[in-house]
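Q: What changes when 2-phosphoglycolic acid is included in the input?
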Amino acid sequence: MKPLIIANWKMNPSNLAEAKQLFNSVAKGVKNIKNTDTVICPPYIQFSVFNSRFPKNIKLGAQDVFWEEKGAFTGEISPKMLKDIGCQYVIIGHSERRNYQKETDQMVNKKVKAVLKEGLKPILCVETLNQIRRGLKGISGKDLKKIVFAYEPVFAIGTGHPCSLERAGRVRLTIKKSFKNIPILYGGSVNSQNAQLYIQKAGFQGLLVGGASLNSKEFLKIVKSIDFMSKT
Ligand code: PGA
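A: The predicted holo structure follows.
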């Protein structure tokens, strides 16, 4: 798998014009990137920034999903709806949702299953091995291989205090022992200075980038540094 760089815009930017501008500059910037895959996860309401004319190496992702297919679930979006609009990846169980929306591992588990059923790729955000076990309950075999983990220590998210490479690398190895073939991304205060290190030194297969993904120059620096590293 090529290194996977996921941009989680969270609840930003505050208008469609800015979202378009940001998406277009990133899409333009990654045009010649060959060794890295980039996924942009805008707020649902800004999904129209994505356009299938963009180069194949930029993909659309969602920041959340609901587990039912359709029906009376006010405010929710189904995996089918996401697929229909060209979305390929779905972030599930982000710590901000676990915190503000009180998402439990059981809810996360239902979402992972629903997303797999629709053929989309879940990015399961976790901090502990137990969250992984509970989030993956009842999922096995070839479905497991379609999942990507993102190790996101809460203290590092949006704080400007990234997890040390030693600690992140240790957690990665612990996860790897139980789940050998599942790619693991790192997320938490990633920037253009530290991005490479999480891949080169701590062994992650990609990054989940929040704050730094809202600045196209900074985000492209991250993508290009990983691309360059993967080439050499
Ligand atoms: P951050 O967010 O890069 O702003 O720390 C990461 C995340 O929440 O995925």
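Observations recorded in class: The chain has a mean pLDDT of 96.
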